[in-house]
Design a protein that fits this description.
binds fe (ii) ion; Transcription Regulator spoIIAA
């Protein structure tokens, strides 16, 4: 079963709101539509994550299904912050779409949703980053990968894309519009705010070309996340470990990987 980290936040709500945060599922499937290389790679990577997870009793797919059931049982909104797929394969896309079909969740992508190989590169077959994001959005067909928001019990639950280690202009503009609603916001994104993101000067991934505007908007977004009075806290994944840091005037939570059987249950009061 899933091991939960419990987090309480205070927003002065009439009734508490629950969020189940999952991240870094790392599905490792490839099917007959994928290349033999990808099938071999996914088999190898399955072993990598089993070892990193300390040989957990369930597969990432089973943990994902358990998380769906747990969210319903808890009456919690399920929010997934990416790396659902270890790499972009037809097999992973199919399994991911099958599990989420007809389910209610919010999703923000991670770097791995865009990758075709297991290194920090965004190479073939798509030019990055805009084309990859748009293609994935079309294929999943049920998410806005840049930005989504949902008001639950007086709190604005927001997903903001930083899957390629910066916040794109489109995401930042949507976030600024959302602030005008004047509601407390809990903001989810994939890439935890770590030193490189705070001091972004160069792209983390090869083949991702950032413009001066990308650097500027990304820094502007981080300033808002760290200091804006409406931001309750920020929640991310990426590091495959549980962590809590104070950044600016906010708490920043990093949730461990679901492939290890771990998730975070957030209760907002
Ligand atoms: Fe990951």
């Amino acid at each position: 079963m899933i091991e939960l980290t419990h987090t309480k936040l205070h927003a002065g709500l009439e009734k508490p709101v629950k969020i189940l945060h999952i991240t870094d599922i790392h599905l490792t499937y490839a099917d007959e539509s994928d290349t033999p290389e990808h099938r071999k790679l996914m088999e190898k990577r399955r072993g990598v994550f089993r070892r990193e997870g300390g040989f957990p009793p369930f597969t990432p797919k089973e943990y994902f299904e358990q998380a769906m059931a747990l969210a319903k049982k808890e009456g919690a909104l399920l929010v997934c912050t990416g790396d659902a797929m270890d790499i972009y394969t037809h097999g992973n896309l199919t399994v991911f779409k099958d599990i989420i079909a007809g389910e209610d969740l919010m999703f923000s992508p991670g770097g791995h949703e865009h990758q075709r190989v297991c290194r920090r590169t965004m190479e073939e077959p798509y030019p990055y980053p805009e084309t990859a994001r748009a293609k994935l959005e079309r294929e999943l067909g049920c998410f806005n990968l840049y930005f989504e928001s949902r008001i639950v019990g007086g709190v604005n639950i927001v997903t903001a894309d930083n899957s390629l280690d910066y916040f794109p202009k489109k995401t930042v503009e949507a976030f600024k519009r959302e602030l005008e609603r004047g509601l407390p916001m809990l903001v989810f994104f994939h890439d935890a705010v770590w030193d490189e993101l705070l001091n972004l000067k160069a792209p983390y991934h090869e083949n991702v070309r950032l413009t001066e505007e990308d650097y500027r908007t990304s820094h502007e977004m981080i300033e808002l996340l760290l200091h804006h009075p409406l931001v309750l806290a920020t929640v991310a994944g990426h590091g495959h470990r549980d962590e809590e840091r104070t950044l600016g005037s906010k708490t920043h939570y990093m949730t461990s990987g679901l492939f290890k059987g771990k998730a975070r249950l957030i209760e907002i009061e």
